[in-house]
Design brief:
By secondary structure, the protein is α+β, with helices and mostly antiparallel strands. It has two domains: about 70 residues, Glutaredoxin; about 110 residues, Glutathione S-transferase Yfyf (Class Pi), Chain A, domain 2 (Up-down Bundle). The protein is built from eight helices and four strands. Strands 2-1-3-4 form a four-stranded mixed sheet. Helix 1 links the parallel strand 1 and strand 2. Helix 4 packs parallel to helix 6. The longest helix has 29 residues. The two termini are about 25 Å apart. The structure holds glutathione.
Length: about 200
């Protein structure tokens, strides 16, 4: 099993942490999505990472499909069996992924537009989603013990990505959320190695 990834990508970080937690053997291959590598486009028409590749050529994407795949492949190590708890874990993952989507949209707006074409109203709309979601997360952190699930890995990837790309812009009034990775990494020390970073 191979994971095509980039070290800064929060979605990639989430699935790499999850595969590690599930004790699934995998190799990693760094790809530059913006050079449209054929190796990626041949298996994922969207040209996005993370993309998981099995030795028989089967490809799995996107990150949420990969998380479900890892859960099945590991014999259900990644999400709770109890339906209500599973739903909560999946919802936490969806919320964190949604914040990542909004953060990426904010970063890409000036990267892919000439200065006079930057749409501030679009950036503000994305940021309002971030603000509401981070306030919600700060007030509703998941129980964190040695039994981790997919939602924890999404949250860890998100908080580390915020630290990497939005330092100084989101922490005020959210100290519980900012400090949560300290607790998480006590149960998952590989966080330091697998979190989004340059
Ligand atoms: N919903 C996707 C999002 C993945 C995504 O947007 N990945 C970024 C890197 S962080 C990417 O590949 N961007 C390249 C592009 O959009 O062309 C997932 O959960 O896997």
């Amino acid at each position: 099993m191979k994971i095509l990834y980039s070290p800064t990508s929060p979605y990639s970080s989430k699935v790499r942490m999850a595969a590690n937690y599930c004790d699934l053997a995998f190799t990693e291959e760094l790809v530059d999505v913006y050079s449209d590598p054929s190796q990626l486009l041949e298996v994922n028409p969207l040209g996005k990472i993370p993309t998981l590749l099995e030795e028989d050529g089967v490809a799995v994407y996107d990150s949420r499909a990969i998380m479900q795949y890892l859960d099945r492949k590991s014999g259900r190590k990644l999400f709770p069996r109890n339906p209500a708890k599973r739903s909560e874990a999946e919802k936490l993952e969806a919320l964190c992924d949604g914040v990542m989507d909004a953060l990426l949209a904010i970063r890409f707006e000036p990267m892919f537009h000439a200065p006079e074409k930057i749409e501030q109203a679009w950036i503000d709309r994305q940021w309002s989603k971030v603000v509401r979601a981070l306030d919600h997360l700060n007030a509703n952190l998941p129980r964190t013990s040695k039994n981790l699930h997919g939602g924890h890995f999404a949250l860890a990837a998100l908080v580390a990505y915020l630290g990497l790309r939005f330092e100084g812009e989101w922490e005020r009034g959210r100290s519980k959320l900012k400090n949560w990775p300290d607790k998480f990494s006590r149960f998952f020390p590989e966080f330091e190695k697998l979190k989004p970073q340059v």
